[in-house]
Amino acid sequence: MSNAGVYWFDKGKYQKNYDYFWKKLVPLSGAAKTEWGEVLRRLAKFYYRAYNDGDDYDHVSYYMGAPIILPEKGYKSKDVEKVASEVQRMISGPSSMGSYEKYLNKATDHLLRAMMLHMSTEDKIWNPETNRLVRIDTPTGLKAMKLLNCKLSYKCGDSS
């Protein structure tokens, strides 16, 4: 497998965002203080095991206790719970190592996109290039929306 698009080799699609959120949300040891940070930390364990030991999801979950992305008691935030469930589903299917690596990266893209959209507001969007909020109605905001595969939709008038 090529190193292109692989977070383990610092070449993920949203690598700058991964590094930013990792530094802000994941402690040097132990659980993260935020639920988003905890999902990112738990997903990183799968990368570590895949690239250091050649383990896939089944091996990691057997040795570490499944399900590993979702804690036993779940997450308080329904948004985090939903994304964590999707991430776990994405990485638990493939059995061959090449497929597993591909799905690890897709799951990480999915998580990071969700984290960036969570940081966004009604009139500002998280810019993946700068790790800052930008107004949606600017060229930079429109570019950020494109990078996150988002589209504006308008609602005019009263629909009653």
Keywords:
160 residues, two-stranded antiparallel ribbon, mainly alpha
Number of helices: 6
Portion in strands? 5-15%
Q: Low-confidence segments, ≥5 residues, pLDDT <50? A: none
Rg estimate, integer Å: 17 Å
Q: What general form does the structure show?
A: globular
Number of strands: 2
The end-to-end distance, rounded to whole angstroms, is: 55 Å
What order do the strands of the largest sheet run in, or round the barrel if closed? 1-2
Give the assembly state of these chains: single chain
Order of helices and strands: HHHHHEEH
Mean of all residue-level pLDDT scores: 85
Q: Provide the helix percentage.
A: 40-55%
SSE class: mainly alpha
Main sheet record: 2 strands, antiparallel
Characterise this structure.
By secondary structure, the protein is mainly alpha-helical. 53% of the residues lie in helices and 5% in strands. The chain contains six helices and two strands, in the order αααααββα. The protein has helices at 15-25, 35-53, 57-64, 78-92, 97-119, 139-147; strands at 124-127, 132-135. The chain starts with 14 loop residues before the first helix and ends in a 13-residue tail after the last helix. The model has no long low-confidence stretch (mean pLDDT 85).
Write the layout of secondary structure elements.
Blueprint: H1 15-25, H2 35-53, H3 57-64, H4 78-92, H5 97-119, E1 124-127, E2 132-135, H6 139-147
Antiparallel strand pairs: 1-2
Helix pairs in contact: 1-2, 2-5, 4-5
